[in-house]
Structure formats: C-alpha cells, structure tokens
C-alpha cells in the first residue's frame, strides 16, 4: 500500500466553500469509478477555513502520471475538474498546472 498526503486551498468565499463541500457530499459516480480504476482504494478530504487536506491510499502500482493520463482521457473527469476549478485556489508555490500539492511526511509515531 502507498499513502499520500496532498493539500490545496479554496477561494476565500464562504458561499463557494459551502458549494464545494456540497459537491463532495454527492460526488458523481463516474468520478468515484475513475478514482478506483486508477488504483486508489481509499481517499479522504478534510477541510478547515480555506485549506483542504487529502489522504490517498493506493495500490503499490499506483502512479500520479498514469492517473493524470486517465483523467485527461475521461470527459466526465474533465467536466468535474472544470467545475471544481471555480472553487479552488492554487497554492503560491504550486508548479504550473498543479492543483493538489503532494506533502512530505516529517513525523510518524
């Protein structure tokens, strides 16, 4: 099993944040199928203020590059990403085209 932690910000607008949360309480079935098809078997997203934190648990063979290609080839995923983009704000240090930024683990107990 591989585990990843990622972060992203939301736009600082309570109405938009509320809408984003609502969307994630009713994620489209096509999006769930796409996530599972990529080798991810568990995903959680946490929220505080404008900050999001995602935990992914995936198969050993999981690859962000392969998932990115699968997503690019899936019109429904592209529709979802375009919808989510209106709520999301890139972190100032994110690479060009990067939304969710991979975090480094610095402590484990």
Key terms:
single chain; 109 residues; alpha+beta; Alpha-Beta Plaits; five-stranded antiparallel sheet; 5 strands; 38% helix
What is the compact description of this entry?
This protein is α+β, with helices and mostly antiparallel strands and 109 residues long. It is 38% helix and 28% strand. The chain is globular.
Topology:
Elements lengths: L1 E9 L3 H12 L3 H9 L2 E9 L2 E8 L5 H9 L2 H11 L2 E2 L11 E2 L7
Antiparallel strand pairs: 1-3, 1-4, 1-5, 2-3
Structural overview:
The chain is of the alpha+beta class and 109 residues long. The protein has one domain (2-91): Alpha-Beta Plaits. The protein contains four helices and five strands. Strands 1, 2, 3, 4 and 5 form a five-stranded antiparallel β-sheet that branches. A hairpin with a 2-residue loop joins strand 2 (40-48) and strand 3 (51-58). The longest helix is centred in the N-terminal third of the chain and has 12 residues, at 14-25. It is globular and about 40 Å long. It starts with a strand and ends in a 7-residue tail after the last strand.
């Amino acid at each position: 099993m591989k585990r990843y932690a990622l972060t992203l910000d939301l736009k600082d607008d309570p109405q938009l944040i509320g809408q984003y949360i609502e969307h994630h309480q009713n994620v489209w079935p096509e999006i769930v199928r796409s996530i599972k098809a990529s080798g991810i078997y568990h995903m959680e997203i946490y929220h505080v203020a404008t900050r999001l934190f995602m935990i992914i648990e995936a198969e050993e063979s999981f690859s962000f590059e392969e998932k990115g290609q699968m997503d690019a080839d899936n019109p429904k995923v592209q529709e979802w990403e375009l919808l989510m983009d209106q709520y999301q704000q890139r972190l100032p240090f994110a690479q060009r085209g990067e939304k969710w930024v991979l975090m480094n683990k610095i402590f484990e107990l």
